[in-house]
């Protein structure tokens, strides 16, 4: 008995240590004592990733701007490269407007390419807020010069370090295909950080980084003369055209590079597929959704809230770091962009599927 | 830089921030103490609160927590033979036998003191490498990283125990388990049997707990025994501290290993303790590693705390997280309005330096707190098995479930656990399995990248050759060195 | 069962596992294949060699000592069943109820605690566990009944 009480007191000690932490006890939003309604953001990744940070960044603003000031909590459902959580949201989360999904390009691309493990359909969801991201392709200064002179003149392929051909790399790979660049893709790196280090080591000489990583880690390289940007991946505007990235107004788009090199505008299926992928993976990099079956009034409340957030001064000020300075989309503009992006033509789809199968040995319909 | 370091010290010692550091320390120790909860869980737990916090306060909280997890996790490793987190598996090898001999307090005293020293060395290493970080990191390209994983795998040879066959086979089983899930070269799923859970691969905390904790639970019940075979606990924590002091070179050596392994991005810190243990086993004279040699506790404990300092370098300066914990730390920095990258040693140098100080202080305070807890907690080892096991099982189930919040975690825990139990009763060494598992992904990834990028040219890289020599020396040369040192001791016949 | 025989069976199991693994690996595409194929082929060969070696040793009865060493089967099995039973309870009734039932029954039957004592320790564990979950957002396995 003495030993038992000792053990119990030890367990208590652990509890007491926890109690030392007033933050955690008061802050966790499990309970709902004040009778507020509770809003849950489903994030299909572990805590701490880009999408999770995105979701968490929005929580206080939804609470402030929405009618009734709901409590907002984040629920992480990791697994399957975001597919597990997105499936779970689509299939088993209540469709009463209390649960929202935070999706990202990692759920968009498999959806567009008909990956077999996808059991969700964005057509059955209503977008609330969407946020873009950009990407910049860069190389070494010598190669950049050669590239600008004549990009077909590379005798030895440029080495590109990537993560996986079916992720965000796909867009970059397609841009090389549009330009008909002689490159050798080495895919299998553990992340964009390691692939950048591979560039710094000289293991690769062609790389891309997304906006914030580019600004933080590649700009210094550009300044000390070891890297030079070639073009930005661009953004898709409301008319479906590729435009310069607002964060990199000085960098040309793939289209401009193509015109510069070949003297005509790019066309054909690869070009269409590229634009489509830029739209779904970059212009709509992250989207917060609600079930379409949710009550009309709660969808309206969410949309009004999103509108309010977009104009909130505090939000605009703070979004600089997390959203990389891009303007968020909401309302009709967002809906229109999404209709455009997710309406993949059969031919683009088969083109990409065949491309992945031929060049990277990857049958995406089997995944 | 010294000047900025002193300024940062003043920032860290500000009472309002110090409170948060102690809060972090408290949480870190509890998270480390509970098997299955690791730094990743601790980070995920604190993340919601750092949003919009003053960066120095947030850092005090987060780093305070990270720094001491490897200190707190020693309790279950030594007392119960269950790894508190996946970073303290090697501590079990000698810590648990010591507890069985009734020397738990001494072992823990040594462990905490080594943790303290290792952690402080890690913090200092972070400080010292700031100016050289860039050339150091870019020195390791894929072929070198591949050779480093091979170096890690060669530890299985050292830890194989009596039968080399069993050791290598266990290592291969680990590699095969690590191959489950998506391949690095192409996102194709292997051995997933159409389950979405397995596409992410098995998670390290679950495998580590299954392989070490599950067998312990069953044996404690079947043999109806207490952890400590002797009724009276002997030796105090102070004795352990003195022993560590006597082995100061081992402590320092292991800390350096910890810093280096933590520092190399892409290797992951989870094998640090094994590598330090393996090196210790090879280099310590007249050792009885594996049967309750206190030096087998000192080496991994010093290394796993030192690792944290090392792993901050690629995380902060390059934005490359080496582990789940540092990955979330990166997210936390973003939430506080900071971005990892070269700016951390220019405009945000004070933040980096405050991380250094926090690491140093948290390690000191954390170790002192743990030393004070030894006396009450070490009595756990005298409670009989069937009294403690049910509570432990509840804890383990909770812990295993936290790794991906899926039933798959529990199923894997039981299946691998049964496998581990069979290995235990049939005298198969379990550490090689774990090392194989941890390194499988890196081994495959860097092998593939090396071949795809360089063909076979990379074999002739100078650093690759050096590492190959180190591996060979380690596998064969240990015996020679031992003979050599014995000769010196027996009268210096060697010239 | 004696230990040497159990070891042979276990090695046999590992051999079968590796063999199945390389057969399965043959179906992967080239890039996904090389690593598991190398590993499982090596494992398969090595375990076969070891299996034959132990079989020969066993035949020769060189390991008489090990032969005499028997391993328990029923007793560990009983506790494995306890663990599985606990998980089954969680699966059906949810974590809190399952933990309450499991602790209470286990403490009385296996640990021979008095009813009062086991009730008290069960209650305390539950309180601590729920408190922990509220304090640090720890989640429970989902159950059929959704509790």
TrEMBL record, chain A:
The keyword Secreted does not apply. Keywords: Signal. Residues 1-19 form the signal peptide. InterPro entries: BUG, Bug_dom1. The keyword Nucleotidyltransferase does not apply. PANTHER family: BLR1237 PROTEIN, TRICARBOXYLATE-BINDING PROTEIN. This is Tripartite-type tricarboxylate transporter, receptor component TctC.
UniProtKB/TrEMBL annotation, chain B:
It comes from the Bacteria. InterPro entries: DUF112_TM. Keywords: Membrane, Transmembrane, Transmembrane helix. The chain crosses the membrane at residues 18-37, 43-69, 110-133, 145-161, 168-186, 198-218, 255-277, 351-374, 383-401, 407-426, 463-481. Residues 18-434 form the DUF112 domain. Pfam families: TctA. This is TctA family transporter. It comes from Salinicoccus halitifaciens. The lineage of its organism: Bacteria, Bacillati, Bacillota, Bacilli, Bacillales.
From TrEMBL, chain C:
InterPro entries: DUF1468. The chain crosses the membrane at residues 6-23, 35-52, 79-107, 119-138. The keyword Transcription does not apply. It comes from the Bacteria. It holds the Pfam family TctB. Keywords: Membrane, Transmembrane, Transmembrane helix. The keyword Membrane applies. Residues 11-131 form the DUF1468 domain. This is Phosphoglycerol transferase MdoB-like AlkP superfamily enzyme. It comes from Salinicoccus halitifaciens.
